[in-house]
């Protein structure tokens, strides 16, 4: 049984006979996309973990792309009807869109078991353990025999619009140069499965010989890394023309470490 943002009003906190529960089927997986409190946030979805696997994409409360202004959302690519509906209940309706995308991307939507979304964002819970990470959506049941804990809360990030799946990589950069400068560093990943756009991995003071770590949620599963493009820029014109490079860049895949 797959719960697509099961309803919060009249169901949350009720006995298991009333609401969805893991005892309802051999395997219950749940996608939580609108779990902010109903009052005052109008969250339509339930927040507690109630299945064998509970996925909280983007933290489970506010989905990327749902904060767009009403006009752009109503006159969306999918037409006025879908746009109007999304404006009213965009977070809630993301659950079925993630599910339908998961059918097309069997290797997408890896959920990382974590204490909270904050810990996941900060750099905990990476990479997947040796038994792997479950895939949110249609292929979650591939993980059926591997569940050890009573409730498993899983976190991941998604894109703002179709196609929704993102693949998580840990990028570690050691800078080289003569003096520290202010600016930002972007990295693009190239691999056997495709290439990513530029992702910002550092912003602020760039210190030579210092190592910086960041996570990239890439829009493509790059497969085996073949090349990394390193670009940096300072935020204003600097008459000393500072030079900065990368001594080393390490890319770690969340899927297999």
Structure commentary:
- There is one protein chain.
- A hairpin with a 2-residue loop joins β7 and β8 (194-195).
- 16% of the residues lie in helices and 30% in strands.
- The protein has helices spanning 38-41, 70-74, 80-104, 117-122; strands at 2-4, 29-31, 53-57, 112-113, 152-156, 167-177, 181-191, 194-195, 199-206, 211-218, 225-234, 244-253.
- The chain is α/β, with parallel strands linked by helices and 257 residues long.
- The chain is elongated.
- The protein has a five-stranded mixed beta sheet with strand order 1-2-3-5-4. Strands 7, 8, 9 and 11 form a four-stranded antiparallel beta sheet that branches. Strands 10-6-12 form a three-stranded antiparallel beta sheet, with no helix packed on it.
- The chain has four helices and twelve strands.
- One of its GO terms (molecular function) is galactolipase activity.
- It is a peripheral membrane protein.
Reading off the top of the CATH hierarchy, the class of the largest domain is best stated as: Alpha Beta
Radius of gyration: 21 Å
CATH H level, superfamily name of the largest domain: Alpha/Beta hydrolase fold, catalytic domain
Task: Classify the helix fraction into a percent range.
Answer: 10-25%
List low-pLDDT spans: none
The CATH topology label of the largest domain is Rossmann fold
Strand fraction = 25-35%
Which sequence of SSEs, written as H and E, runs from N to C?
Answer: EEHEHHEHEEEEEEEE
List the helices and strands and how they pair.
Layout: E1 2-4, E2 29-31, H1 38-41, E3 53-57, H2 70-74, H3 80-104, E4 112-113, H4 117-122, E5 152-156, E6 167-177, E7 181-191, E8 194-195, E9 199-206, E10 211-218, E11 225-234, E12 244-253
Parallel strand pairs: 1-2, 2-3, 3-5
Antiparallel strand pairs: 4-5, 6-10, 6-12, 7-8, 7-9, 7-11
